[in-house]
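Hey team,

Filing this mostly as a record. A colleague (T.K.) asked me to run one chain through the structure pipeline before their review meeting, and I want the input and output archived in the tracker in case anyone asks later how it was produced. No errors, nothing strange. Just documentation.

Input sequence:
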Amino acid sequence: RQAAGVGASVALGSQRTIVETFFPNKSLLARPQDVQAVLSKVLPAVVSINTTGFKDPTEGGAIVAGAGTGMILTPNGEVLTNNHVVAGASTVTVTLYGQTLARPADVIGTDPSQDVALVQILGVTNLPTVQLGNSSSALVGDSVLAIGNALALAGGPTVTEGIVSAENRSLTAEEPLTGGTEHLTGLIQTDAAINPGNSGGPLVNSAGQVIAMNTAVASSSAGNAPAQDIGFAIAINTIKPLIAQLRSGGVHGPRVAPGQTPPSSEAGPLPGSAFIGVEVETVTAQIAREDNLSISSGALVVGVLAGSPAAAAGIQTNEVIVGVGTTPVTSDTTLAAALKSYKPGEQASLSIVRGTQHLSITVVLGSAP
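Output structure:
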């Protein structure tokens, strides 16, 4: 499972991005308006995000500091960013443009499969906001600006200029703190310089509209010529439909307050909703090979919470959930969706693959904390 978003981090290994698939694209050159005019519309709504978390105890449990970028969506301080910026964080703070005060923030909701998250700055009003554009109208050759907390440098965000280099790129990346893997599609490729810390920041067009969220940068494997000017951003039209769900807690869990440890990637637990107590990840062909699984799709159980309904029912790690009732499960997100139709206290029949055995296990669902 390969690497790398571009949230800056301390005491972590190098980040790598493996580009898996390339698609054909159109080409049309468009020249920018005045850069200063564009920045005046966007910069005030760009924030720096800083986090702290803890490495795995088996690796010494060291405190890890991270940095990323966010975009203010609402005057009361809702901030859009990448999931990998806040994943595994025990504290989250946000610094507004032109200020030095780091304000505490809550993680409202996340969707790790799409690498998006929504953060709420505490105690703010009347903030400037970004304007979300239409990424479908972006064409290869269009001029863009990338804005973000590159390398967590003091003194405010970094601005770089480039073009839309390609459309509809796909990549697989690994979040270095949690080790989670994501497969992203429909990405916009740009040659605007993107560096660690840029994650979650806007990629804007010549009208000052956000067309994508900067997410990853390509680097070469050992022995190959160095990759240059190949960055990736999640198209804003991919993100727009997810915002309402993020406001409700997202795919993987309830609000996390500063100083608390986030829950693991539990399938679908908003507070008070049905809860089984497993940490899962989507089975891919690569994961199936690495873990010697007998099937190539489903939700792989990578953790079982002690005392949870899943533990009581005998669900074990390295098993694959392939169905809930009559609903097939092909990924972590389809598992979350299937559980949303259940209430705490109800029974759910889970179809499980354990090795080469196909089992049906009944779980009495609990209530999410």
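Quick notes for T.K.: Helices lie at 35-42, 83-86, 236-239, 243-247, 285-290, 309-313, 332-339. The first strand starts at residue 8 and ends at 9.
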